[in-house]
Amino acid sequence: MYLVQDKGGAIALMLAALLFLGTWPAVLTLLERRGRLPQHTYLDYSITNLLAAVIIALTLGQIGDSTPEMPNFITQLGQDNWPSTLFAMSGGIVLSLGNLSTQYAWAYVGLSVTEVISSSITVVIGTTLNYFLDDRINRAEILFPGAACFLVAVCLGSAVHSSNAADNTKKLSGSASNSMSKTCNSRDQEVSKNLPDKDEPRDLEDGGLVSGSNINTEKAKVGTAEFLIQLENKRSIKVIGSNTFLGLSIVFFAGICFSLFSPAFNLATNDQWHTLNQGVPHLVVYTAFFYFSSSCFVVGIGLNIYFLYKPVLGLPRSSFTAYLKDWKGRHWALLAGLLCGFGNGFQFMGGQAAGYAAADSVQALPLVSTFWGVVLFGEYRRSSRRTYVLLVSMLFMFVVAVGVLMASSGHRKS
Predict the structure, then answer these.
(1) What is the pLDDT of residues 17-47, one digit of tens each?
(2) What is d(CA 198, CA 233) in angstroms, rounded to the nearest whole number?
(3) Bridge partner list, 64
(4) For residue 412, how many other CB atoms are within 10 A of its CB?
(5) DSSP class of residue 183?
(6) pLDDT tens-digit profile of 3-20?
(7) Is 32:104 a contact under the CB 8 Å cutoff?
(8) Within 10 A of 258 (CB to CB), how many other CB atoms are there?
(9) Nearest Cα to 157, choosing from 211, 194, 196, 118?
(10) How far apart are CA 402 and CA 411, in angstroms?
C-alpha cells in the first residue's frame, strides 16, 4: 500500500486536489447552462465518481505487501471494522447531499459565490472539528487565523451575490428591447412573454423549449440584459425573478453538509473514539475512501432517480429511459465525476499524512472555480465597481486562507 510519508508530498496532493475539486463544478455548471437536466448529469457523475475510488483502491491501495498493522485494500475488506466503515459511509452521505444541493445553487447564486460560501462554512466548522480529532497536530496559532479568513470570505461572498443580483436587476430594467422592469419582483404577464413558461413542455435532450417556440437565437454580448435573457431561455433551471434567499439557503445547507464529511472520514481512518475491537487495524485511507464513495454513489443515484419523476424547483419531469437516451454532454458529466473522485482521494491521502485540518486548505477551490466562472461563463461581466471590489476582496481572503492553512501542517505520528 502506498503511503505519503512527508509534508512536501502531502502538499503536492492537496494542490492537485485543489485543481480537480475546483474544476468539476465548472463542468457541471456548463452542462446546466446548456440546458441538460441536472438529474441526468448527476447520474453520470455518480458513476465515474465511484469508479475513481475503485481505481485508487485497486492500484495505490494494493501496492506493496500487506501487514497486520497496515493491510492492503482487499485484505481489509473482510475484517471486522464496521464502526469505522459506518463513519466513512456517513461521510459519503453528507458529501452526496452537499454536492446534490450545489448543483442547484450554482444556477441561483452563481458558481463563484456558491463555492466561496460553501467552502468557507466547511473550513470554519470542519477544520475546527478536525483539529481536535487530529490530537492538535496542527499549529493552532496559524490554523485558526486561516479559518477566520474563510469566515470573512463567507460575508464577502454573500455581499458579492447581493451586489451582482442588484446589477442584473438594473441591467434587465434598463433593457430597451425587453420589458423586464418587473422581472425580479412580480413575474407579471409581460415578463412571461420574454421568459419561458416553466409549465411549457421542454426538450429533455437540451432543456430548451420544444421546436416551434419563439426564441431569439441571435447571440448577445456577455453580461448584457439580452445575454441574461438568452441564458435563461436555454438553461435547465430557471432563476430570473427567484427569491435571493432561496439560493443562499441552498448554499448554506450544502456548506453544513460539506463541513461534516471530512471529520467523519477522519474518525473512520484514525478511530479517535476507540470503536474498533482490540487488535483490529484502523481503516486505511483507501478502504475508507471506497466505503465513503460507495455510500455517496447510492445516495446520489437514489435521489436523482426520484427527482427524475418528482422534480424540484420547476424542472420538467423526466424518466430513466429519457436519461439513458440523453447522450448530449454525457462525456463531460463523466469527466466531472472522475475529477471529483480523484480530488477527494488526493485530499484524504494528504490529510492522513499532514492532518485533515490542513488538508481542508483544498476548500480554497473557489479560486479555481471563479477562474472558470469568469473565463467560461462571463460571470460578473459588466458588473458595477462595487461588485468587482467585493469579488477581489473575497478572492484575496481565500489566497491568504489557503496559505495559512497549509502553513499549519503537522505530521501524524505512525
Answers:
(1) 888 998 999 999 999 989 999 999 999 999 9
(2) 10
(3) none
(4) 15
(5) T
(6) 776 677 777 888 888 889
(7) no
(8) 25
(9) 118
(10) 18
